[in-house]
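Quick illustration, no need to memorize.
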Amino acid sequence: MKPHSSRNPRNPQDLRNPQDLQNPQNPPIGSYAVDTRNGRVGIVMGYEGPYVQLRPYGGGREWDVEPEAVRGATQAERLSAATAYANARSRGELP
């Protein structure tokens, strides 16, 4: 039998990694973030060792980013990523 967890998966604060809680400037899991090295927008999937793992908007392969090269995405950056994804799908470039 699995032990009961008191963490609520619907509450983004409960999904934060303990390492993330130690550095409140790291974006929480599930939030949109920007890789400042190249401007790519992704969704924070987790923390692996010293890295933040981002996944592209719409899915795809995750990539690792140093925490100092990640910041939260603005509304405009989120909209731009969503538009780029929708345009690529309409052109048949994505499934």
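Residues 1-16 have pLDDT under 50 and may be disordered.
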